[in-house]
Amino acid sequence: xxxxxxxxxxxxxxxxxxxxxxxxxxxxxxxxxxxxxxxxxxxxxxxxxxxxxxxxxxxxxxxxxxxxxxxxxxxxxxxxxxxxxxxxxxxxxxxxxxxxxxxxxxxxxxxxxxxxxxxxxxxxxxxxxxxxxxxxxxxxxxxxxxxxxxxxxxx
Length: 155
What we know:
five-stranded parallel beta sheet; 6 helices; 9 strands; 39% helix; 19% strand
């Protein structure tokens, strides 16, 4: 009952990723090999993956992430929005990206739970796996101004 395998080999080895994809019945997701729309195009052209894992911080933001999603959709590759160790600010941006694109069918937006302190006010709420987007303008999240004062004192 394995749904997919995420980047089972080193990021630089697209030929190897393609070989894995062709050798197993489990779908393969490109992750570490994917930073930019240009990377997405290489992955698509080499037929190295069944899914693309878009990480806003790696891609350079929302616009580049949208381009990756569009390339995936054009090529028939569903996408996932993933994250790295990020605050709820960028996690919320990822959730908005996910909600805006029908080709993005998976999300992994949990890393802000692992932060000792998250300086973000607002943002998404996750309850029993259900994500609720904020209703405020913009993305509905902002950095707490008092956090900057605390950070300044630390240095």
